[in-house]
Structures are given as structure tokens and as C-alpha cells.
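Moderator note: this is an archived Q&A kept for reference. The question asked for a predicted structure of one protein chain; the sequence and the answer are reproduced below.
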Amino acid sequence: MITAPGKQSDQRAPLAGSTVQRFTNSRPRLPDWLRITLPTSDSFARTRSLLDELKLHTVCESAKCPNHWECWSKGTATFMIAGDRCTRACGFCAVSTAKPLPLEADEPRRVAEATRRMKLRHIVITAVARDDLVDGGAEHFRQTVEAVRELNLGIVIEVLVPDFNDSEVAIDAVLAANPHIFNHNLETVRRLTPDVRHRATYDRSLHVLQTVKAKRGDTIYTKSGMMLGLGESEAEVLVAMEDLRRAGCDILTLGQYLQPTLKHLPVVEFISPAKFDELGRRAGELGFVHVASGPMVRSSYHADEFNLPSMSRQG
């Protein structure tokens, strides 16, 4: 946490202003600011029906996102391509770990059709990690982005990608489709990465963002996100934000980690809304062009609230 001048900063001290608990065998009781009221809009049912009809996966469901009721009721969703079986087993993620099925050649077209019917202005396309594929699924990303753009002229396209094992060839394949925003999540601070992320590394994620910025920094925004409440200190969060800025990251999201099942990593802290506000201000001071920081924030939550500033871009 950040200490007064002259005092030693404890890299492992909990975030100041948070509710510290250590849960192991039971699900924690959520603080008031994390309790949501389920919407009653017909839009939720329509979105569910459309996704079923086109046989599409969303990270909203697969990752048990707490916001999916709100998002679907507004007619938005984050599409998860390349199946719903991941080759990695991260300690925070509810997506199933299993041997993946073959890619579906018509999935890009189905995503594009769903986007058209939903009249989206901003789409987020993500995927499970596909370490079984030579390119990690990068070509499938390219095809999906191009199919969406063909049916939806003027739409803002954001990709949220795995690290592709830092393959420059795979990164180039995604960049060839000219997405507006290239998102890859750092997820947590350096110290906690080995326990939180399976196979991924802190430095590899930074290098992926740095590579994209070096190649297409004049036409594509880079974005990353972190979960808080896993036991990180405020000092560690600030260091991670500084590392992201050094890697050229433009956009940052900070949100509360919530344990999806008892098999996943426990929540260590519930971070207060005031602390999220403070961290958001600190991130702005570091030079991020857009910051979303709050307990319910996720990588693609309200992604369309970022209005692309004037930038020379293709597509």
C-alpha cells in the first residue's frame, strides 16, 4: 500500500480502503456495492434466442460474467470464438478446460450476422486459448473481424486476444484485419501471475502489447485489464500500471475479481468503489487515454463508451 513519506512501502500489504477477508471453503457474502438487480427487459430473451439460433458462444456466459444480465438486456454481448473449451486452466476463469473441438468455418459469418441483427456500434470479439493450433487461432480472429466489417460498415471492432505464446506471426495475422482496438489482459500483478494464470507470463503479456504498439501504434489502440482483490498491494497495482504504460498501452480496465466457483481462486479483498475511483485517477495521471475502474468493470463492460479519438486508421 502507499505509505506516508519516510515509511517503507509493503509490496504485499492489502489495498487501503478495502474489505479484507480470506475465504477458502465458502463463497463470501457480497458487499452492497456488488449486489445487482436483475433486469426485466424483453431484450435479454431476444439476445438469448438470437445466440441460440446462430449457435454462438459468449464470454458473458462461459466466464460467468456478473454483468451479462445487464448487457444482454441492452442487446449487447461479447462474442467468444473458436469454441468454448480452453487449453489453459487459469485459476480465476470459469471457461471450461478440455480438448477443443475443430474450428467451425462458418463461425465468422454467424458472428457477423448476429452483429448485424443486434445493430451493434461496437463489437468485442474474444476467444479461448487454443494452444492446440499452430497459430493459436489468430487466422480465425482475422476471418471473423473481416466478416463483421463486411456486414457492418462503420462498426468499431475490438479484439480481446490470448497471448498466442508471443508469436509475431499470429499477432500479424490479427493486425492484418485492422481492428480498432487490440486488447490483451495482464490480469494481475507480477507476483501473483504464476498462481493466477496458467502458462501465461507477466512479461509475455507486456511484450504482446509492446509488439502491437511498435507495429501499428499509429492506427490501433492497445488495451489491457486487471482484476483486483486477489491479494495484490496498491504499490504492486501502480507498478503494473506503469509497466503497461511503458509497453504503450492506451486503455485500461480495473475491476473486482469474483470467485466463479469454489474450485477457483478465493477472493482475498473486496475493493471499495472509492479505492477504484482513486486508482482510476492515478491511471489517468499516468497517461492512459481512457480508464474504466470500478467493482463491476470487466474487459468489455461498456466498451462502447470509449469514443475513438481522431486517429489515422484503415478500415
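Archived answer notes: The chain has ten helices and twelve strands.
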